[in-house]
Amino acid sequence: MKYLVNALASHEVHVAKYYIKREAWVAAANRAKEVLKTYPEAPALEEALAIMVVAYDKLKLTDLRDDAQRVLTLNFPNSKYSKGVNTEGKAWYRFW
User: Which pLDDT tens digit goes with each residue over 45-84?
Assistant: First the structure.
């Protein structure tokens, strides 16, 4: 069951990254926020927070961006997403 929840959370993050690639900032932020609410213990939270930081920055919502950055830094101090989100890379469903 835990695997399925993590897969669903990863899929939502994948969709949010697609929205970032398409420059649909509001949709990306909403998808990432939904990951935080629906899957609170999934490993994809780190990337979802980073997506929120990027989307809020592009929307010039500095208060929300700073809040998301603060939560990301507090919960994931050594985050690989502190420099931003890579929209290129392997698909969410690939394990190899």
Answer: 999 999 999 999 999 999 999 999 999 999 998 888 776 6
Give pLDDT tens digits for 6-20.
999 999 999 999 999
C-alpha distances (whole Å) from 39 to each of 4, 5, 28, 86 are 11, 7, 16, 21
Amino acid at position 29, single letter: A
Cβ neighbours around 82 below 10 Å, total? 14
pTM for the structure as a whole: 0.84
Helix ranges, the chain (H): 2-21, 25-38, 45-58, 62-75
Query: Shortest CA distance to 68 belongs to which of 88, 85, 90, 89?
Result: 85
Would you list the domain boundaries of the chain? 2-75
Contacts with 34 (C-beta within 8 Å, 6 or more apart), sequence order: 12
